[in-house]
């Protein structure tokens, strides 16, 4: 995938900005508070329905405005269409476009000229993988971050996933509502059945996704953080799957769930963990090691998505130079430049690794609600020049 146009309106400091990103690495430089991260937030919003800094209603809409707008045009391409020894040669397949208007409460969206009924349709269209200062929570944070990671990947590579996930979520909501209202036990039977019918395939999809991701992930981890030793990824289904099917586990947990007022077991409690050969567990990771582990997971997800769908996702790095040491920056950027992926990187200044390494990039300066670039000047009052 390659974004050819990105318009942002009323998002944080941006009133109206139009960008024409280049292929390969796009570097956005600017002072603190200039709006660099906001550009990545706009992309992330289109791909996930939320910012990595929170929901739209957590301050993403520009002060004094009622809604933000993001419009993206991109080329879908096939990296496998032809390859040289150095890099895949992308062949444009089709031009796509998506627009989103979001007030924090309501939203409307268009995809390829048609209105969309669900935000998920937009998220399924554009794949963006973001590495940002909070990414270490993928490893050191709560299980829901890791579940979201696996589910986002599945959402893109497994066409039947969304329907299964939605069926499970609906059944869970219904069962929890009954538990909360202290409904008679017999009322739970239908939803236990439904939960098990959707939960078993949901579990199988997650298990096989993580199995498929594991080799690439561990290779990358070996390359980025060899000091962590030989590692292993374990999937935890959310109930004692090796001992009983979900239907039995739900029945067994029913009394406890009635007491607690919510469903205590099932795929909504699933998790995955990494066991490191050289350290006792994730609590022993330094913050930098947790970041590198998260980065390995995200890059593996990008590789898997490219192999499975033929589409290289967009890669976004917020404040790369302060997140990774110099050697890791070189490794990661050289690798990405070799894949032909389009990359968005932010920083207060162009890091020496980009300036010195010979890796090609396009530079944009972000300041005062405008973006000036090698490819023109765009901002609130200026059109491309
Ligand atoms: N809802 C809002 N309305 C108007 N301005 C906002 C809003 N939310 C944030 N801002 C401003 O927008 C800018 C956000 O910038 P952003 O976080 O994208 O900057 P950055 O260039 O990534 O900065 P840093 O280098 O400090 O991380 C800041 O100047 C902030 O004060």
UniProtKB/TrEMBL annotation:
Residue ranges of every copy of the RecF/RecN/SMC N-terminal domain listed in the record: 3-347
Keyword Oxidoreductase: no
Pfam families tied to this protein: SMC_N (PF02463)
Principal subcellular localisation of the protein: cytoplasm
Compartment(s): Cytoplasm
Keyword Hydrolase: no
Residues the entry annotates as binding ATP: 30-37
Entry GO terms, CC: cytoplasm
Keywords, alphabetical: ATP-binding, Cytoplasm, DNA damage, DNA repair, DNA replication, DNA-binding, Nucleotide-binding, SOS response
An example molecular function term from Gene Ontology annotations: ATP binding
Gene3D superfamilies for the chain: P-loop containing nucleotide triphosphate hydrolases, RecF/RecN/SMC, N-terminal domain
Transmembrane parts of this sequence: none
GO BP field: DNA replication; DNA synthesis involved in DNA repair; double-strand break repair; SOS response
Family note: Belongs to the RecF family.
Name of the protein in its database record: DNA replication and repair protein RecF
């Amino acid at each position: 995938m390659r974004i050819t146009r990105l318009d942002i309106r009323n998002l944080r400091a941006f009133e109206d900005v139009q960008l024409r990103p280049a292929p390969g690495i796009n570097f956005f430089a600017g002072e603190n508070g200039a709006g660099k991260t906001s550009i990545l937030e706009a992309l992330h919003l289109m791909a996930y329905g939320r910012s990595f800094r929170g929901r739209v209603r957590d301050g993403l809409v520009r002060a004094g405005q009622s809604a933000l707008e993001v419009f993206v045009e991109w080329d879908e391409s096939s990296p496998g269409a032809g390859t040289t020894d150095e890099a895949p040669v992308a062949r444009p397949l089709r031009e796509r476009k998506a627009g989103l208007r979001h007030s924090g409460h309501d939203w409307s969206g268009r995809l390829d000229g048609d209105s969309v009924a669900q935000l998920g349709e937009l998220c399924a269209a554009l794949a963006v993988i973001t590495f940002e200062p909070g990414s270490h929570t993928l490893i050191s944070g709560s299980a829901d971050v890791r579940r979201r990671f696996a589910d986002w990947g599945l959402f893109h590579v497994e066409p039947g996933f969304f329907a299964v996930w939605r069926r499970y979520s609906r059944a869970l909501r219904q069962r929890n509502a009954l538990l909360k209202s202290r409904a008679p036990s017999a009322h739970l039977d239908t939803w236990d059945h439904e939960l098990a019918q959707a939960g078993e395939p949901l579990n199988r999809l997650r298990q096989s996704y993580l199995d498929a991701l594991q080799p690439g992930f561990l290779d990358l981890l070996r390359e980025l953080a060899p000091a962590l030793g030989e590692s292993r990824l374990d999937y935890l289904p959310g109930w004692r799957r090796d001992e009983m099917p979900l239907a039995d586990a739900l029945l067994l947990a029913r009394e406890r769930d009635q007491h607690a007022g919510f469903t205590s077991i099932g795929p909504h409690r699933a998790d995955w963990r990494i066991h490191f050969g050289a350290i006792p567990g994730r609590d022993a990771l330094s913050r930098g090691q947790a970041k590198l582990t998260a980065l390995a997971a995200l890059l593996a997800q990008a590789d898997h998505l490219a192999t499975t769908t033929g589409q290289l996702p967009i890669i976004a790095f917020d404040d790369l130079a302060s997140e990774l040491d110099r050697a890791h920056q070189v490794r990661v950027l050289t690798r990405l430049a070799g894949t032909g992926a389009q990359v968005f990187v932010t920083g207060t200044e162009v890091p020496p690794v980009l300036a010195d390494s010979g890796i090609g990039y396009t530079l944009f300066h972000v300041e005062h609600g405008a973006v000036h670039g090698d490819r023109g000047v765009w901002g609130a009052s200026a059109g491309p020049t």
